[in-house]
Amino acid sequence: MVEKLAQHDLDVAARIKEERREAFLTWLAGAEFEGKHLEINAKTYPGTCSWIQQRLEFDIWLQNSGRPVLWCEGKPGIGKSVLASNVIEFIKAKFAMAQPTAVTYVYYDQQEAKLTSISELIRSLIQQLCYQIDEIPESLLQLKRSCQSPLAIATPSNLARLVQSFHRTFLVVDALDECQSDHRHQVIQLILGCENIPFNVFVTSRRDSDILDSFTCPNVTVLNMTAFDVADDIHHFVTGQVKSLRKRGHGRRLYLQDDALEQTIITELTEGSDGMFLWVDLQLINLCRISKSKQDELVRDTLTSLPQGLEKTYDQILKQIEDNGGYMRTLAERSFMWVLYADRPLRKVELQQAVKTNPGPFLQADQLDLDISSLEVIFDACGSLLIEAGDFIRPIHFSVKEYFLSDGVTGPNMFSLLRDPTLVSEVLALSCLNHLMELLQPQSSWKNIYDLQDFIRAHPLVVHASQVFDHHVAGATHMSTTLRASLQSFFDQRQEFHAAILQLRTIVYPVTLNDLLFSTQSVLSDANAGTVLYSTRLYDTLGQHPLCQDLQPPKYMLHQAAAGGHALLCIRCIENGEDVNQPDGNGTSPIYHACLGGHEQVVSTLIDYQANIDIKGGHYGCPLQAAAYRGHMRVIEILIHRGADLIGHGGAFSSALAAAAAGGHEQAAYVLLMAGADVNYQGNKNSDRPLHLACAGGHKAVVKLILKQANVEIHAVGRAGGTALAKAAANGHKHLFPLLIDAAGVDIDLVSKHYGTALQAAAAEGHYDVFRDLIDRGADALVQGGRFGTCIQAASAGGNAEIVKMLLDQKNVPVNVVDGHYGTALQAASALGHLKIMKMLLDASAKVNIQGGHHGTSLQAAACWNHKEAVVMLLEHGAKVNASAGYHGTALQAACAGTHRDVVQLLLSRGADPRLEAGYYGTPLQAAAAKGDVETVQSLLGRGADAKQGGGKYRDAVHAATAKGHLDVVEILLESQVLN
């Protein structure tokens, strides 16, 4: 017994230690590079980079018997990132069984800047090291307990102490030359400080002058990566690529009639590559294009004149673009401008729209009509120098941007525009301004979220243009007459135009209905050009420009300055007498705007001037909730440190934790939990519990974090009567099921008020894969309850025929059970007009005349919602046209109440009795009279309806028409009484 108790104590202690470790790692979470590493490593051919293991410099460095830093420098496209990936894997394998050895790494990428400071780098390295130890040092845990920012840990001293936990520690830094220049020197200092932090560092980069100067020192061994080193790798790569391209059945393909030509291509590309994998890729793209003619001689001719090096290759590609002619040439130029000079990477749909915008006088009128329905057209026009990267478009390699922006471009003059940042900024500024004025001149701001959603879908560039036009104006340092005139026109627009601009600027991606709701509630009815000036980067650029001297300052200047991140302007406004806590027209305070925008300097400034950090107002309820929803960590930390209340401020969310969960911000959620946020707090009726919001959004990391909290109520019913599992199922997030069902033990068949069960939720929303997954996990399709009553009714309402078929194939699923809002499955399908499902149910012996549910009968449900074909199908299967039940009493009254004239005539032609008394309106005539439907009233009177017949809400038809003010109907009814 004593031994069992002792073992139990050990198990508890181990579990506590592991939970503490995971909590720390969640809190610390910063930039991670494992995904990038795995992506690069997956593309590597077997045996690639084995050459480095034969190099004496590498062996000495690996044995720790020489200099601690090994710098492998090479030209662009030679495969440095692949080499870094292979070195990481080699070190892991070699030291797997040795004394404790840690491997850390970072991949710099100028097109995807994950690390914006030296602190972010150190934080990432500490995080990687902590994943490789069993127990987090107490000194680091203490920093977390003190609720400091994770960046407070990111110091060289903390990193050094952690490194000392290992016998050896390796750091691999790839593409140091792509590290942002404003902190590259600090990274180099960290690398060179190996005597303070005992790393063995492997660095790859190009031979940039600042790196060369810094690494010319006793701590660094230089290894020059040459074409000779990678010759075998190039040969394997070329051979594999050529053979793969010949076998492809779709996409890019290499067409060769003569098999012997394959070896010629391999030989020529291997010998001509000069070690550059990127060069090989670009030549293969060109050869695939030429081989489409299926004339081997053209391929052979191309092989005899291959360009030398990347620059000559880019020259050749530009020449080909020039030769393509006007349309494709114009498309290429515009695409390059938008991608190379974008304030942020463009999404695919944004670029497709962007190339069609009018950039003013810089292109001729015959070049303006670009209709791009396929991204492949853009890629072809640009010579495949642009590629897809997830949802975004980016250059195939960083060297592409360098080539265009350098003075050494020798391509056609048409691309000289791309070498002038000021001119390109002006073109893009004009494109954005023209696009906005073209779309928004006839448009007011949006009050309806679905109207706004439809507008954004129809015009995918409009949000981007509204958010970056000021960036491009700032880049046009020498303002031309054309840009000045365009800005003047922009400022001269009506107030509704400027309100729409400001509304679009509130939208963030990915767009959610909650964001759109916030946007529709943020409309400033009194917005003007001055409002736009003060709340954007235009103020920094044009604040003192004559163009803006006559602009009327916004009514709420302090609010707009806070929204725009202008700390000094905020100070000036306050010192000139503006109230730091005054609400604007939408009831929101300056500090709310600053928190929403993530402007930490403005937030601190406003607090110093006595801003109320708990002030209520705004769509998200209060400043902390706004910052939490957007995931602005530094702002959240400032507010918590200043004592902000964590709950109870209304708005879209009832707590800051709920806001962070809805936004999917794991780190924000963790910081709030550590500060004491209640994991189960629901608060006002408009919000939901944090777990439910995270499940609805599919935010796996946040769900995992919340489920780790000891007191979380996993079976609680949230807003609208749904469970967390039902929320996940309804929104199609089956990836959460292992966490909720397998790990947390959520009851898969738990019944709640709205969806009933999770299985019903998946069925009602038509998510077949989710439904299938739940069935495979043992969900019971026969459990009843909730809005739909049965699973078959939910599936029939959801309209997914596959789900209905799966249920019907189970044989034991009863199709005629009466339960739920729609009564039966057939009534649900009829109400929503799902003809295919109706036929499936009828073939499965569904009874058409069963009564129950809101509509009473299936026929009344179909008639109520104007589904004429469904009405015909039901009548043909024996539906009783005069059956009395449900809200409207009869199918005819339901059709009259909806003014569905075609259905009314159909029912009358099938014998519907207009004199039957039942339902809300008493008679069909009273329903038609209440709706003011003259045509139907006359038709019913012609069929024998009596204007004096009583019953229903309004007593008779005359009173119904009178109550609703339909005097023409009253006159017709009174005349019919006289005639009768």
UniProtKB/TrEMBL annotation:
<dbReference type="Pfam" id="PF00023">
    <property type="entry name" value="Ank"/>
</dbReference>
<protein>
    <submittedName>
        <fullName>Ankyrin repeat-containing domain protein</fullName>
    </submittedName>
</protein>
<feature type="repeat" description="ANK">
    <location>
        <begin position="586"/>
        <end position="618"/>
    </location>
</feature>
<feature type="domain" description="Nephrocystin 3-like N-terminal">
    <location>
        <begin position="47"/>
        <end position="206"/>
    </location>
</feature>
<keyword id="KW-0677">Repeat</keyword>
<feature type="repeat" description="ANK">
    <location>
        <begin position="623"/>
        <end position="646"/>
    </location>
</feature>
<dbReference type="Pfam" id="PF12796">
    <property type="entry name" value="Ank_2"/>
</dbReference>
<keyword id="KW-0040">ANK repeat</keyword>
<dbReference type="InterPro" id="IPR036770">
    <property type="entry name" value="Ankyrin_rpt-contain_sf"/>
</dbReference>
<feature type="repeat" description="ANK">
    <location>
        <begin position="754"/>
        <end position="786"/>
    </location>
</feature>
<dbReference type="InterPro" id="IPR056884">
    <property type="entry name" value="NPHP3-like_N"/>
</dbReference>
<dbReference type="Pfam" id="PF24883">
    <property type="entry name" value="NPHP3_N"/>
</dbReference>
<dbReference type="Pfam" id="PF13637">
    <property type="entry name" value="Ank_4"/>
</dbReference>
<dbReference type="InterPro" id="IPR002110">
    <property type="entry name" value="Ankyrin_rpt"/>
</dbReference>
<dbReference type="GO" id="GO:0005737">
    <property type="term" value="C:cytoplasm"/>
</dbReference>
<dbReference type="InterPro" id="IPR027417">
    <property type="entry name" value="P-loop_NTPase"/>
</dbReference>
<feature type="repeat" description="ANK">
    <location>
        <begin position="821"/>
        <end position="853"/>
    </location>
</feature>
<feature type="repeat" description="ANK">
    <location>
        <begin position="920"/>
        <end position="946"/>
    </location>
</feature>
<feature type="repeat" description="ANK">
    <location>
        <begin position="887"/>
        <end position="919"/>
    </location>
</feature>
